[in-house]
Amino acid sequence: MQTAKTISEVRIAVRNAQAAGKRIGCVPTMGALHAGHLSLIEKARQDSDFVVVTIFVNPTQFGPSEDLSKYPRPLQRDLKLCEQAGADLVFHPDVPTIYQKEPQITVSVGDLATRWEGASRPGHFDGVATVVTKLFNIVGPDVAFFGQKDFQQLSIIRAICKDLDFPIEIISCPTIREEDGLALSSRNAYLSSASRKSSTVLYQALCLAEELTQRDEFTLEQIRHKMHSLLLSQPGVEPVYATIVDTERLEELEQRQTKIVAIIAAKLGQTRLIDNMIIRL
Prior knowledge:
- By secondary structure, the protein is α/β, with parallel strands linked by helices.
- It has 2 domains: 2-173, 3-Layer(aba) Sandwich (Rossmann fold); 186-276, 2-Layer Sandwich (Pantoate--beta-alanine Ligase, Chain: A,domain 2), CATH 3.30.1300.10.
- It contains 10 helices and 9 strands.
- Strand 5, helix 7 (151-163) and strand 6 (169-173) form a beta-alpha-beta unit.
- The longest helix is centred in the middle third of the chain and has 16 residues, at 124-139.
- The radius of gyration is 19 Å and the shape is globular.
- The model has no long low-confidence stretch (mean pLDDT 95).
């Protein structure tokens, strides 16, 4: 496995792989890798010939109240995991490599970034969109792999490729869960033992939504209410939102469609967790 810290090193390695007729896959991450990330690398290994993993803690997607300095950065551990999962190249730049001192151009996301996660974290998705655009330009992949758990982020990245004409296939990979249903996340490490016990209610609420949407006697508004009530039934769980939206613009639905998504966010102590479930009718 190769490693690179500069843009020129990445472009040379990718150009050599392309000259050999290889399909380039990319897995963007912020490091602190867990089994969810590794499943993306393994999927990239299956669906492409040269797998580039990026590890970059992106400062522009952190808000003023979010402590960038505390984000875990176990680089040597991450590199070992990338190699074991089948990565060919890991790009781990520093901040000055990705951002000039006073950049004049950034990517601004429209209405899709203002709701749900965007409402709680203003500017977050502009930061995500900017860094993903830069990484796509640096790596030049044929295909990129993202987890379904961050569904709003996934929708925005699809919109980037569509609206900015990136010839990149975006592959959504299933959420990896603990045995009790909790979606894997680097944030789970911050849960207290009591909060960890209560956290399973997020997945339970999604399963409830899936079950009730199959039954015509419940409206979507009633289902949203039941999801919210279930979250409140667990000690220490503070719902942020629990609702059902369409899969592209993430607008709240009043009527069922053939494919919808239940999305959920809650605070458990100081830790904010999100999850979702695609539902087909």
